Amino acid sequence: MEQQTRVLLDQVILPIGALVVSIIMGYACRITVDRLLLPFVARTRISLDGIIVRIIRTFIVPCFLVAGLALAIHLSSVPGKVVEYADKILAAVALLLLLFIATRVVSGIGQVYAQPGHRAAPVAGMLQRLAQIIIWTVGIVMVLNLSGRDITPILTTLGVAGLAAALALQDTLANFFAGFYLLADRPVRVGDYVKIQTGEEGYVVEVGWRSTKIRTLPNNVIVIPNQKLAQSIVTNYHLPERRMSLLIPVSVSYEADPDHVERILTQVATESGGTIDGFLSEPPPFVRFIPGFGAYSLDFTLICQVREFTDQYVVQHELRKRIFRRLREEGVEIPFPIQTLRFHEQAKGSLGEDLIANVAPHPVSVRITE
Model pTM greater than 0.70? Predict the structure, then answer.
């Protein structure tokens, strides 16, 4: 009787007790997590610590259950082959649990870094999917290995298939990794106004894994492969900031006083602050006598600030009209091309007139000096 009781204890009660204790410990740990950890992470909707705590809460009971089953089987007196098969099954289940946990962790990290405004937001989704594919591929191979199957043919097939896919999709892969570079380094961002080395320019509307789309000012979309964009010289008019300098050349006659012209241009630009959309009053506009002495004019440059690249067109339009009216009011002449011809004594009279007719057939001003 005592021996039967001991056999019953060894074969039934201890395994079942180990399983029950494992389940109880799992639920106890979950309750501890609910009461101690969740209140601290519940304040933030998306945070890495909160995601990890929720993953622990979800998988803690299944992990204790698998551990309890393994302990119960080893405490029981079942045949050795049964224990061997059970160990393989439980190892496969434990590996699948680890795969689910790793996938959830990767997904959680992707959610954290994909939040709006984060620098890694554009590339987070792409990396999340890539990491999940790698995790499940490696996990499935490991499960097959645990089941006793020979995975050498599988690995060989995967290697050959990967090599063939890489050769067949080399352009696509090049665009993919170039897109990864663009999303990570962010030389261009959605909403930026850019100009490509080949002349295309416009607003960036999308940076995808294969191509980047740019909307031009005529409202057309240019699709540029990421590899081409990554290899091009790109001018980003929104970096380091949207505000930019606008240089407006103004030419006046040599008869004008440079100081007077400078005062006129500065006054016109200053008075235009706040009245032209996109024109910035600060920093204040200023004038420089550059490039200086032209072939037939004094050349000035009015330097002011506009809100962003496309505002320069309206600002130039309005400022040029106001400058023209003001120069006319002040009596400052805006010159047109002049040719000065010098004649020797023998080139006077009709010969000079013939030269003028041949040299200046177009409407230009010709000044004849002796």
Answer: no
